[in-house]
Amino acid sequence: MKKRHEILLRKLSNRGAYSYQELSDEFDVSTMTIRRDVDKLASQGLVIKTIGGVQKADAPSYFYETKLQSRFLVNREEKLAIAEKALELVRPGQTLFLDGSTTCQQFAKQLTRHSKGLTIVTNSALICLVMGEGTENTVVCIGGQFDKNTASFVGPSSEELSGNFFVDMAFLSTRGFVTTEGTFESSVGNLRIKQLVAEQCTELTLLVDHSKFRMRALCKAIDISKIKTVVTDDAAPEEELNILKEQGKQVYVATSNDVLKIEEDVVSAS
User: What is the CATH number of domain 71-265?
Assistant: First the structure.
């Protein structure tokens, strides 16, 4: 293990950052083993954990938004489970806001399969395409300047339009989440949209996989006081979930059984 740590540090020194999957492939070990290695090195101050990977310790303290395509496969099963669990919160006839995160895109697929009579408001082009595959729900797209990194519409016109919507529930994901502080983002354009939605929605639900806990990014986005419900997966740190519960937050934990439900639905529909 010590030798693997030394090689990992040399790789980071040469390149700056790696994803957990890349290091798993490099060392021919599981991503869980790599995560444990990174946790150990991070505790010694030798590396910095980032979303889905690790960077060298002397890199800048802020994190930039990664390309959308590269995020689809990161923690995919966890995001699927979270999407299935989040269906339990939705009631017929509600108006929902969904952000353009990959987790919310999985959630949109489940809404298309299982929900009717909803109105979906979003600034994500991909959410519109996903929800457009069904005909049982109404989709309202907030337009504006197109951000290719997130496939979302941002900018002043998007912000102005966002201010016109008062939704029943907002479902947001995040780049980083600190349970005593709130959410953090690297995409400043999307950050402002989320802040506006958080101010005007009746309820805000955070869909966040375990890798986002204890992480910060470029900017603080949503204060923890605005979040009513958190839906996460069963690898989330137990102590962090306890903090949320002590704050009076509703916490839903998705498991592998939730992924099995999705697979069974797909098989039965085919």
Answer: 3.40.50.1360
